[in-house]
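Protein modeling request. Please complete all fields; requests missing the sequence field cannot be processed.
Requester role: graduate student
Desired output: 3D structure, token encoding
Chains: 1
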Amino acid sequence: MHVSLVKRHRDHVESRLASIWERVLDVDVVMPQDNFFNLGGDSVKALIVCTRVKAEFGFRLSVNDMFEMPTVAQLATILRSGGQERPETNLVEIAAVDNDAWPLYFVHAAPGEVMFLRWIRPHTLSRTVHGVRASGFQLSVQPAKTVEEMAERYVDAILARSGTAPVMLAGYSAGGVIAYEMARRLAAAGVPVPYLGLVDPSVPDIEEADPESLLPRLMKTRLAFLLDLYQLPNSWVGRTDAVSALRDAGAVPADYSADLFERTLEIWARNVLATRCYRPDTPYQGPAVLYTSAVEVKGDSGQLGDFVASGDPYASEWGALLPTHTPVWLSAENHFEIMNDPQLFPRMRDDLDAAQAHCMAWVGR
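Delivered output (365 residues):
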């Protein structure tokens, strides 16, 4: 026990940070290398930690920091630095696995963050997983306005990390559309994309000459959703009042600014608008898997062409963008619960392994 305490109290920063975790997570002892999410942490508890760190250290942590540096030892290095703002990054390491499996890059949905990946552990997909988050959560960085712009930023970030190694991609909802465009760009650049996993991807369905004009209405829709989610009245005159109400409800940290809240609404609205207005000039011809709850024709999983032939409207939309032999896996969950389907990640793991094996066999011929 004495050794554990010595390891724990390497300095006052780690000691105070560990004490915050212990209170929030209701555990007896937190060691420097303990992973916050493995100890039972989730998005709500991460927000509470960020708020308490701000109160005790005077430094703003983000939930994304908790993902990137999920141990006391890692977070303490930021606090010791004196709180200098670090450059925004699109890539967040969700799970690290030391094996020969190619990493998976999983693209954000409309909110822009990657909290929906919080349940992924090293064994979940048996490979390293990086979440791809939206640009613009730092107010000094402008959000991307189109799928093409998002894809360009994210592909640049991936190539800076992986070089010309094969890239495994996945995306959920709006992220599926963005991952699709990323795959097109990577393939055009000669970078292999053995796997493109589209989890209930959105369908581009807006024909609008001036899509920017729709942005305020979408932001208002998102605000109404958040207020309703926390059972708050949707009658606030300004964003500042809405942020105050959400602070009081514990939905956002106590020092969450109206400017940052406005930016989160903008990022959501831009992601929705961009993916629904997206029109690729040519279809993607590479390997992909469609995991969906959206098809109306229920039954066994099959190939995309079979569902198109049945007249399913959702399959028909994606049938114009993907090869007809694309496998389709059907989930019994709805769009908002598909990421919680207990069969989804095992199926994705098998598909990822098969895609890598097929690529390696083809290269080795």
